[in-house]
Design brief:
This protein has 440 residues and is mostly helical. It folds into two domains: 307 residues, Na+/H+ antiporter like domain (Na+/H+ antiporter like fold, Up-down Bundle); 42 residues. The protein has 18 helices and two strands. A two-stranded antiparallel ribbon has the order 1-2. A hairpin with a 2-residue loop joins strand 1 and strand 2. Helix 4 runs antiparallel to helix 13, helix 8 packs antiparallel against helix 9 and helix 11 packs antiparallel against helix 12. It is globular.
């Protein structure tokens, strides 16, 4: 009875930490907190905190970085690892597994990356700041779903699936951009070492190794560290490691149900002892059921389920706290309205909308894709506006693309302003478009 009461109390909490929409709200709280602290009397202490430097290393090899860099290279690698897990799952058995279902969100994602980059390039052509063209390309899925959740059960499942598939494809595009265009000078030896660790992980998958501990040690201690020291951004290692995680079960559904019924029947035949402790035979059967349940799952889904709340409620909020703190002291209109801030602002607010909606319209018009049955083109317009919430990924790419703190601040101003307006506009458009509760 006591355990039932505890489960009842914990159920809302478990639902909360696995909800991407509530994570978006929490991310907003952390962002506002960072803004408030950076413009308070504790602003200097806030900014100095992220410049604290510490090192990791072994056998004479040491890597030193600031706390801000460790968050970007370390914690965000976990974020990209989960993105990689989601991507592999979607390709194997989700919305991206069927070309018929995948073509529309993929087209929308590509349009939503190309047009913002072109708008940014238009504002910054011929300037050193042109390197920031990748900043307005990405969509923050947690924030976007957080806004979508405010509309409650008026949102059809197909709308959530479309937005999620679009954002995952968007994240994949961002990873490719980071790997190809935002990589520093390459260390061939360390890169070759990373490739060797990647081969070890792939071989282990092929041989049927399912230990998440093994993949964690080789993935983090080998692949991630080698990429960190190679010059290729370490977050790319997160995606590559995720793609090596086994996604096969050791037993199929029919075998699982048959053996489970057998174990349950055996368990029922054992006379109860009328105390809270199990009989040795019962305990033995419980362990068999646990092993059977583990065999029926996949390491990929188990890891994704375990790490998802960590990424949503630890990694992304910490990243927001470290990057959203813009100080408004001494800021002027001339300092804010620059080619960088305007390129980012219009790239996210207008470019995302035009890219997502335009590509969707083209593919539907040409007959290459079709809308899900319970979605309208007006809904696509609302989602296109929501896709302009760049935030986490845009801030991340800003740190890679723009070395000048002044120019980076201009980009962050554009990101926060555009993301806020895109969220409000997207909500209003969908609120007007989606049917009211009780309507057909």
């Amino acid at each position: 009875m006591k355990f039932e009461k505890i489960d009842t109390l914990l159920k809302p909490f478990n639902s909360f930490i696995h909800s991407e929409s509530t994570a978006g709200i929490f991310l907003l709280v952390c962002s506002v907190t960072a803004l408030a602290i950076s413009n308070s009397p504790w602003g200097d202490a806030y900014h100095h905190l992220w410049e604290y430097e510490f090192s990791i290393g072994f056998a004479g090899h040491v890597v030193s970085n600031t706390l801000h860099h460790w968050i970007s290279d370390g914690l965000m690698a976990m974020f990209f690892f989960v993105v990689g897990l989601e991507l592999k799952r979607e390709i194997m058995g989700g919305e991206l597994s069927s070309p018929r279902n995948a073509i529309l969100p993929l087209a929308a994602a590509v349009g939503g990356m190309v047009v913002p980059a072109l708008i940014y390039a238009f504002f910054n052509y011929g300037k050193p700041s042109l390197s920031g063209w990748g900043i307005p390309m990405a969509t923050d899925i947690a924030f976007a779903l957080g806004v979508l959740s405010l509309l409650g059960n008026r949102v059809p499942l197909s709308v959530k699936i479309f937005l999620t598939a679009l954002a995952i494809a968007d994240d994949l595009g961002a990873v490719l951009v980071i790997a190809i265009f935002y990589t520093s000078e390459i260390s061939t030896i360390n890169l070759a070492t990373g490739v060797a660790f990647m081969a070890v992980l792939l071989t282990a998958n092929y041989l049927g190794v399912r230990s998440t501990l093994f993949y964690g040690i080789v993935g983090i201690g080998g692949l991630w560290l080698a990429f960190l020291m190679s010059g290729v951004h370490a977050t790319v290692a997160g995606v590559l490691a995720a793609l090596t995680i086994p996604a096969r079960t050791k037993i199929d559904e029919i075998g699982f149900t048959r053996r489970l019924r057998l174990y349950v029947t055996e368990f029922e035949r054992i006379p109860p002892n009328n105390v809270s402790l199990l009989e040795p035979e019962q305990l033995h059967l419980v362990e068999k059921i646990k092993s059977l349940t583990k065999a029926a799952g996949t390491p990929l889904q188990q890891l994704e389920h375990a790490l998802h709340p960590v990424v949503l409620f630890v990694v992304m909020p910490v990243f927001a706290l470290a990057n959203a703190g813009i100080s408004f002291e001494g800021m002027t209109i001339q300092g804010v309205v620059t080619s960088v801030s305007m390129g980012v602002f219009w790239g996210l607010l207008l470019g995302k909308f035009v890219g997502v909606v335009g590509a969707s319209w083209l593919f539907i018009k040409m007959g290459w894709a079709q809308l899900p049955g319970d979605m309208t083109f007006k809904t696509i317009c609302g989602l296109g506006m929501l896709a302009g919430i760049g935030f986490t990924m845009s801030l991340f790419i800003t740190n890679l693309a723009l070395q000048s703190p002044v120019v980076a601040l201009e980009a962050k101003t554009g990101i926060l302003t555009a993301s806020l307006l895109a969220g409000i506009a997207g909500f209003l458009m969908l609120n007007k478009t989606l049917p009211k509760i009780g309507q057909a």
